[in-house]
Amino acid sequence: MTPAAQIDDVYAMKRKSPPKKSLTRKAASRAASIDADILPTLLGYNIRRAQIVLWRDFARTVADGEIRPGMFSAIALVKANPGIAQVELSTELAIDKASMVGLIDRLEDAGWIVRTRSQEDRRRQGLTLTPAGEKMYRTLKREMLEHEQKFAALYSESERKQLVTLLRRLHDAQP
Amino acid sequence: MTPAAQIDDVYAMKRKSPPKKSLTRKAASRAASIDADILPTLLGYNIRRAQIVLWRDFARTVADGEIRPGMFSAIALVKANPGIAQVELSTELAIDKASMVGLIDRLEDAGWIVRTRSQEDRRRQGLTLTPAGEKMYRTLKREMLEHEQKFAALYSESERKQLVTLLRRLHDAQP
DNA sequence: TATTGTTATACTCTATAACTATA
DNA sequence: TATAGTTATAGAGTATAACAATA
C-alpha cells in the first residue's frame, strides 16, 4: 500500500461524496463548509507530510533502517568538523544538549564516534569519527545521495534550488 | 537563546575558522573538504529543520502546547468529515492505524471527539466532534492561522503558493 | 480471506529539571 | 555565575506483530 499516493484521491472522493456514515445528523449538516480544505493549504501541514515521506524513504534507503536522519546529520557534522563539541552540535542541529547525549551514546556504542575530553577546556567533549565511523560515513553518504536523488528528480534544478531557498528562509526565521 | 537564528552564523564561523580543538590531527587534516557543506544543500535536511521550527512555534502558539500538529490535523479532518472512520484518518494523515488509536484515545479523553460504532458496518468507529470539540476547534483554528501567518509573512503570495506546490509534489511522490 | 480496530511492545525524538565538573 | 555534559523523567510519535470482531 502507498498511503501518500492516495491522499489527493481521498480529498477528491471526499469532495465529491461526503461520508454517509455520519451518526450525528447535526454535526454532518454543520460541516462541508470551508473547513474541508484548510489543511492542504497550510505550510505546516505540507511540510509535515513531506517530512514523513522523506523520513520513511530515508529509513528504507539508508543503512537498512539502522540510522535515522538525526544520526546521519550528527555524523556528517562531526566528519566536517572533527573535534566539535556536543553543545555546538546541539546548536547546529537545533536540538537540546540533553537530547544530544543519547544520540552520541548510540553513535559511540556503535563504534563510529569517540568522545575525547578537551585539554584546553576540560568541560568539553571533542567528537571525532573512528576509522569505522569514517568508513560508515562513506557508505551512508552514498545511500543518502541516492535517497536525495529520488526526490530531487521530482524537480528541475531551478525548482530544487528555489525549494531549498524558501525552506531556509523558514528555518532561519525566529518568529 | 534562539538556536535556529544562529545556524548560518555558525556555518560562517566554521568556514572562516575551522575548530582548533580537534584531538586527532589525522582526522582534522582529512576534513574541511566538500563534506562541510553537504547538509545545507539537502532537501531532507532543510525540510527537517523547517519542520522543527514550525513544530516549536506551533507548541508555543496553539492550545498552550497541549495540542500537537498531529492532533490538530485529526480534529480538523473530523470537523471536515464527520463520521469519518479511523482507518480513513490514518490513510489521510499517512500514519499507521495502530498509531491512530492512541491519538483518538487522547482526543476522546479530552472530551472533544466521540467514537460511535457504525450500524451499516459494525467494524467501523465513526468519529465526530462533541460540542466541546467544536468549540475547541474554533479556538484552535484561530491560533493555528495566527501561527501560519507568522511564517506565511516570510513570503510573497506567489512564493508561498510555489512552496506549497513544490512540497505537495514531494509528499505525493511514491519513490 | 480481508478489513477495522485494538492491545502489547519497543524505539526514537524531544523537552525540562536537577545535578557534576569545570571555567 | 555561567557553561558543558550528564542523568532522570516524561510524553509524543511511530512501527510491527498478533488478536477479535465483522464483512
Automatic annotation (TrEMBL), chains A, B:
InterPro entries cross-referenced by the UniProt entry: HTH_MarR-typ, Tscrpt_reg_MarR-type_CS, WH-like_DNA-bd_sf, WH_DNA-bd_sf
Keywords: DNA-binding, Transcription, Transcription regulation
SUPFAM superfamilies, sorted: Winged helix' DNA-binding domain
UniProt-listed PROSITE patterns: HTH_MARR_1, HTH_MARR_2
Positions of the HTH marR-type domain: 40-172
Keyword Transcription included in the entry's annotation: yes
A Pfam short name: MarR
GO MF annotation, one: DNA binding
PANTHER family with a match to the protein in the record: TRANSCRIPTIONAL REGULATOR, MARR, TRANSCRIPTIONAL REPRESSOR OF EMRAB OPERON
UniProt name for this protein: DNA-binding MarR family transcriptional regulator
